[in-house]
Amino acid sequence: MVGLKEELLKSIWHAFTALDLDRSGKVLSHNLCTVLNVPHDPVALEEHFRDDDEGPVSNQGYMPYLNKFILEKVQGNFDKVEFNRMCWTLCAKKNLSKSPLLISDEDAFKVWVIFNFLSEDKYPLIIVPEEIEYLLKKITEAMGAGWQQEQFDHYKIALNTSREGLSAWELIDLIGSGQFSKGMDRQTVSMAINEVFNELILDVLKQGYMLKKGHKRKNWMERWFVLKPNIISYYVSEDLKDKKGDIILDGNCCVEALPDKDGKKCLFLIKCLDKTFEISASDKKKKQEWIQAIQSTVNLLRAGSPPPHKEARQKRKELRQKLLAEQEELERQMKELQAANENKQKELETVRKQLEAAAARAAEEEKKRLQTQVELQDRFSLELEREKMVRQKMEEQVAQKSSELEQYLQRVRELEEMYKQLQEALEDEKQARQDEETVRKLQARLLEEETAKRAELEKWHLQQQQTIQMTEAEKQELENQRMMKEQALQVAMQQLKQLELERKEALEQYEEVKKKLETAANNTKSWKDKVAHHEGLIRLIEPGSKNPHLITNWGPAAFTEAELEERQRSWKGKKAASE
């Protein structure tokens, strides 16, 4: 919405600046509300344009009212061409040149709208030379003519020397003068302007006649197709009066080439979510151009990018801003360098003055120095003569002392030679003593090592003998233990044999007792049955023994307590075996 507001403001600015300072602001506001489909607010309009000392635009100015009551309510559901034409009607009569032009008023209106699209976002509105060159190139290419770069460079140089750019009316004069369209008739120029207007303002990416297959009748009809960033509209003819339908484009659409069929050639298919459209181009080149254009539009929708010409305009604007920033930075650096240069000039001037003062002082000091030098020279001449005489005497004394010194040095050299020989003899003796001491220490160390090794060998020998003795004793003790264990094992084997015999005897006795018990049990059962059958529960009384006996319901038992326990164990064993 911010970009839309900026585009609207440029056209409104032209209309507002063309109005006289009277009640015409109400007319502009009313017309804006009408063409922008914004509800009228008569109360706010009258309150804003009430009579006061500040004139018809009130003390608050016209822009606050425009922003609050009109532009903030714009939804985008209005005809941009109609809006621009209303603003053009209000400003063209006052600003359009009266001199004859090679373009019509309709073409001048389109150039004015293109100017608003390409102009800078600052007021008063101007179009910079780079955008003028871009527009003239587009018009020249649309006319099929060659671009005259050298001619425009001369015009650009002349323009830059006087101002930053052109106003909308100056741009219309430039294109209407035919300066860059020489040799072209009015119709060719008008068609070129219309083509550029369709591309930059109406966002027409491509247009032309093609055949479309119907969805119901399946017949082929020629239609004028207009491709825009998110829609393809098709009309009966290129005058765009009778619209037949739209193909809504989005990121899910795709376009595919089709083989020739049903006598139709150069076919391609546009797939959308709800419908599919079969279209036939006039030739293979047109078919390929339309496929590429539609596919590029779908790719832009998927990426969320603006139309190519708007994106290119934004890039050119960013490039100009970048160059402007660099130029401003360069100017700032130049100013800093200029200021630094001026400071250096001031410093150099100060240094020059200081040098001149220093030179004056140096000249005065040089004059004094020369005077002093003359006086010193005379004094030094007298002293020099005196020094010559003293030097001659000294030379004679030096010659004598030199002879004595030579003799003394000869004696010193002889003494030094003798001292060197003595030093060498002392060094030889000292080295011999050191060698002797080294040999003696080596012998002593070898002797100590031999003694230590001998003692260590004796110690190892004693340890070995002790180990042998301990091993013999342990061996004897182990042998004794083995003999004792063997004896104990023999005794245990004998006892085991004895126990085996006793077990066998006990088993034999057990078998005998078992037989006796079975016999007694059978006898007892037969007697019990007889007594129960004939006499009922009768207890037989017999003389008992002195030992205690267990009594049963059928009479005294013939078992002792130990026998009864033996019988119980037998019964339990049988029971466990049966289970």
From TrEMBL:
- Xref: Pfam families: EF-hand_SWAP70_N, PH
| Region forming the signal peptide | none
Tell me, what is one Gene Ontology molecular-function annotation carried by this entry? Answer: DNA binding
Coarse class of the protein's main subcellular location: membrane
InterPro entries, from UniProt?
EF-hand_SWAP70_N, PH-like_dom_sf, PH_domain, PH_SWAP70
Gene Ontology, cellular component aspect:
cytoplasm; lamellipodium; nucleus; plasma membrane
Q: Where is the PH domain?
A: 203-299
Is Coiled coil one of the keywords UniProt gives this record?
Answer: yes
Residue ranges of coiled coil = 309-530
Q: Mind listing the UniProt keywords for this protein, alphabetically?
A: Cell membrane, Cell projection, Coiled coil, Cytoplasm, DNA-binding, Membrane, Nucleus, Phosphoprotein
Matches recorded under SMART domains: PH
**Localization in the cell:** Cell membrane; Cell projection, Lamellipodium; Cytoplasm; Nucleus
Functional description taken from the UniProt entry: Phosphatidylinositol 3,4,5-trisphosphate-dependent guanine nucleotide exchange factor (GEF) which, independently of RAS, transduces signals from tyrosine kinase receptors to RAC. It also mediates signaling of membrane ruffling. Regulates the actin cytoskeleton as an effector or adapter protein in response to agonist stimulated phosphatidylinositol (3,4)-bisphosphate production and cell protrusion.
Assembly, in brief, is:
The SWAP complex consists of NPM1, NCL, PARP1 and SWAP70.
Q: What is this protein called?
A: Switch-associated protein 70
Q: Which organism is it from?
A: Eulacestoma nigropectus
Q: Which gene encodes it?
A: Swap70
